[in-house]
Write a structure and sequence with these properties.
The complex is a heterodimer of chains A (about 120) and B (about 110).
Chain A lengths: L2 E5 L2 E3 L5 E8 L6 E8 L5 E7 L6 E3 L7 E6 L4 E6 L8 E11 L7 E4 L3 E5 L2
Parallel strand pairs in A: 2-11
Antiparallel strand pairs in A: 1-3, 3-8, 4-5, 4-9, 5-6, 7-8, 9-10, 9-11
Chain B lengths: L8 E4 L5 E6 L11 E6 L6 E4 L13 E6 L2 E6 L8 E8 L5 E3 L3 E5 L1
The chains are: A mainly beta (about 120), B mainly beta (about 110).
Amino acid sequence: QVKLVESGGGVVQPGGSLRLSCAASGFIFSSYGMHWVRQAPGKGLEWVAFIRSDGSDTYYEDSVKGRFTISRDNSKNTLYLQMDSLRAEDTAVFYCVKDLKVAASQPYYFHYWGQGTQVTVSS
Amino acid sequence: QSALTQPPSASGSPGQSVTISCTGSSSDIGAYDYVSWYQHHPGKAPKLVIYDVSRRPSGVPNHFSAYKSGNTASLTVSGLQAEDEADYYCSSYAGSNHVVFGGGTKLTVL
């Protein structure tokens, strides 16, 4: 079965950096686009970033563009999110999510989700 | 891209039907048929229950149904069961390689 396990969350000061990882198994990782979605405390879900199955294109939510970088290593079945210049408003649970459709060219649907990793930005 | 608008709460008794609305604009729901719905039990991973406006992924029970009209999408949960109590989020493609979510609706089974 599909399994997505996030890691790398923690507490970081404003302006700091964190790198999240997501280990994927149970499906052909290199065939699917992947997303990061977050949920701030007491708030709803927010799409953060998408990467195509072959890593050829990446797309970002406006508030993270230029600060976050999504990437993947298909040889290791692993998705990453490099987060720089972190702000208090980035505090959230970050979910690694598999897209629904094979080789999706754009971010449409969020099929399988990991359990999430907590990121707290605080001094 | 602005978030989609959902009512903060909805409720119904076991066996009843409840409909949750999701209002967007001509730039998202009104422009594309890439509307989806997610069920989220707090502390657990969210679950896709509807995609392509009204299609159910394999394994999702048929008491979930959905449609859209103009800039508004709707999710109906029929034959309410205790396990349907959860937060529900709508989502739509919004063009320019962006996706927007609704603020979420807390469904309570009375």
